[in-house]
Amino acid sequence: MATAHSQICCEKLVAAGAINTLLKLIRSVSRSIPDQEVLKHALSTLRNLSRYPHLAEVLIDTRGSVETILWEFLRNKEEGYFLASELLKKICSNQKGVEALRNLPALLKRLHNLTEDLSRKANNEKRNIRGQAGRENTERRLKEAMELLKLTKNG
């Protein structure tokens, strides 16, 4: 909560080593509901820290951070997906962040495959008369994935 309102709180957290702790936490969570809640809070905190360019740079420079966040984006299907997406967009607002993403060709290939799968799924859902909510969620996820792909290509 404090990171959403205060740059000083964010700076103190980063100085205390919160980025490494949060990344370690993200890597260790399971798919259980309580762990997914913890994951959402960890991603939200990192997103709040990355609002400040100098702290976003610290995040980018932290070993394995971009890879961890991108991996979480690729594997999450719930709210964590959108939090990771916001965080990756903030990372991509820094040229160093774009380069860090480009240095992960295997994960970028998975991102490309995800956009293709979501595109195919969105087209199938348009033809299906089933739930509107599922279609909207798929289209929203597709939009986020395509934006990220575009940011990594264009810098």
UniProtKB/TrEMBL annotation:
SUPFAM superfamilies according to UniProt: ARM repeat
Single GO MF descriptor: calmodulin binding
Matching InterPro entries: ARM-like, ARM-type_fold, Armadillo, ASPM
Record keywords, A-Z: Calmodulin-binding, Coiled coil, Cytoplasm, Repeat
Coiled coil: 108-155
Pfam families in the record: Arm
Keyword Coiled coil set for record: yes
ARM repeat ranges, renumbered to this chain: 17-64
Cytoplasm found in the keyword field: yes
Subcellular location: Cytoplasm
Cellular component GO terms held in the UniProt record: cytoplasm
Protein name, entry field: Uncharacterized protein
